[in-house]
């Protein structure tokens, strides 16, 4: 039997943690009793600089039941860094690790099938939503569009997979070698390789509180994923620049011919429109290039992606 650690990033989750604790306690007890996992398996909550009582609740859970533990980060570092902190902190204690969100939208009953896939030799088991019927039209359309764009740009991502996955220790040992500051774990795990499998599940409604991924954060996350794993946007800028250069030469040739034929007229509208179009394309191109330069700047500084101030876990 392998020792399972479930890691759960938390940011201002005091409204859901008690319910999450109860449900995971039931699930872990069943898994231990049926000998699917080792009796020393744990549930670890990662406090990502919460401003509410999230860390106090995690400490309380740890004191009352050694099944639970906690990791406290020095400040808010964002979901991906908090998740990475949990994975890398527990990897020496665990044989397998499952990551999931605190709101219980991920179906915990899928854990049984994940463990079964692991027994069949999979080092990574991706939890994949079987539908998006419960999403709003806007969220469903933008999410599907995001995965399609990522695929078009050459990024290997699992369609409809978030961060609900099982990983083995050797996968996490390999994850250590991925040093990038601009984290997009959904793209990193397929890069690592090893044998993988998929478990499909129905994503539920959030049990309480508000989503920690509003539209702005979702768009930033999507953009980070694209620019962290694909250089195609910057190549697109080059291709557009070449196309505009060719069109410019054609327009110059056309203008000279018209001048020689005496067909020139006042071209104020054409000139103004051309200037605005070219200026807009230039600004867009500089923005995309600047985004990549900014990421290079962040990577070059190589600052710590997270700092752990407390790690509460019982070894028995």
Approximate shape: elongated
Largest sheet: 8 strands, mixed
Low-confidence segments, given as residue ranges, are none
CATH class of the largest domain: Alpha Beta
Query: What is the CATH homology-level superfamily of the largest domain?
Result: Spore Coat Polysaccharide Biosynthesis Protein SpsA, Chain A
Spatial strand arrangement across the major sheet: 7-5-6-4-1-2-3-8
In helices, the fraction of residues equals 40-55%
- Level-2 CATH architecture of the largest domain: Alpha-Beta Complex
Mean pLDDT: 80
Number of domains: 2
Q: Output the radius of gyration.
A: 25 Å
How many helices in DSSP terms? 10
Count of DSSP E strands? 8
What is the CATH topology classification name of the largest domain?
Spore Coat Polysaccharide Biosynthesis Protein SpsA, Chain A
Element-level helix/strand string: EHEHEHEHEHEHHEHHHE
Question: In terms of topology, how is this protein built?
Answer:
Elements: E1 4-10, H1 14-33, E2 42-47, H2 54-64, E3 68-73, H3 79-90, E4 96-99, H4 110-119, E5 124-129, H5 137-152, E6 161-168, H6 169-175, H7 185-192, E7 196-201, H8 215-229, H9 232-261, H10 268-301, E8 308-312
Parallel strand pairs: 1-2, 1-4, 2-3, 5-7
Antiparallel strand pairs: 3-8, 4-6, 5-6
Helix pairs in contact: 1-2, 9-10
What does this structure look like?
By secondary structure, the protein is an alpha/beta fold. The chain has 2 domains: 4-229 and 304-312, Spore Coat Polysaccharide Biosynthesis Protein SpsA, Chain A, CATH 3.90.550.10; 232-301. 52% of the residues lie in helices and 15% in strands. The chain has 10 helices and 8 strands. It has helices at 14-33, 54-64, 79-90, 110-119, 137-152, 169-175, 185-192, 215-229, 232-261, 268-301, and strands at 4-10, 42-47, 68-73, 96-99, 124-129, 161-168, 196-201, 308-312. Strands 7-5-6-4-1-2-3-8 form an 8-stranded mixed beta sheet, sandwiched between helices. Helix 1 runs parallel beside helix 2 (54-64) and helix 9 (232-261) packs antiparallel against helix 10. The longest helix is centred in the last third of the chain and has 34 residues, at 268-301. It is elongated. The mean pLDDT is 80.
């Amino acid at each position: 039997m392998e020792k399972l650690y479930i890691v759960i990033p938390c940011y201002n989750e005091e409204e859901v943690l008690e319910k999450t604790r109860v449900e995971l306690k039931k699930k872990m007890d069943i898994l231990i009793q049926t000998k699917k996992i080792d009796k020393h398996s744990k549930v670890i909550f990662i406090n990502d600089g919460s401003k509410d009582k999230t860390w106090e609740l995690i400490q309380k859970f740890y004191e009352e039941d050694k099944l639970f533990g906690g990791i406290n980060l020095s400040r808010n570092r964002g979901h991906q860094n908090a998740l990475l902190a949990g994975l890398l902190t527990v990897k020496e204690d665990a044989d397998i690790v499952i990551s999931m969100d605190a709101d219980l939208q991920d179906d915990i009953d899928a854990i049984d099938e994940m463990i079964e896939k692991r027994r069949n030799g999979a080092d990574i088991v991706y939890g994949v939503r079987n539908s998006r019927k419960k999403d709003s039209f806007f969220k469903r359309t933008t999410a599907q569009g995001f995965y399609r764009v990522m695929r078009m740009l050459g990024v290997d991502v699992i369609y409809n997979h978030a961060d609900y996955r099982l990983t083995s220790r050797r996968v996490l040992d390999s994850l250590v070698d991925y040093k990038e500051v601009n984290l997009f774990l959904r793209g990193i795990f397929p890069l690592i390789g090893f044998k993988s499998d998929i478990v499909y599940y129905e994503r539920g409604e959030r049990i309480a509180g508000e989503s920690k991924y509003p539209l702005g954060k979702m768009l930033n996350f999507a953009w980070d994923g694209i620019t962290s794993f694909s250089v195609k946007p910057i190549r697109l800028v080059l291709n557009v620049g070449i196309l505009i250069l060719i069109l410019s030469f054609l327009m110059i040739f056309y203008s000279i011919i018209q001048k020689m034929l005496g067909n020139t007229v006042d071209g104020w509208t054409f000139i103004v429109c051309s200037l605005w179009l070219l200026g807009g394309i230039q600004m867009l191109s500089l923005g995309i290039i600047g985004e990549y330069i900014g990421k290079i700047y962040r990577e070059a500084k190589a600052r710590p992606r997270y700092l752990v101030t407390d790690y509460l876990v019982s070894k028995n």
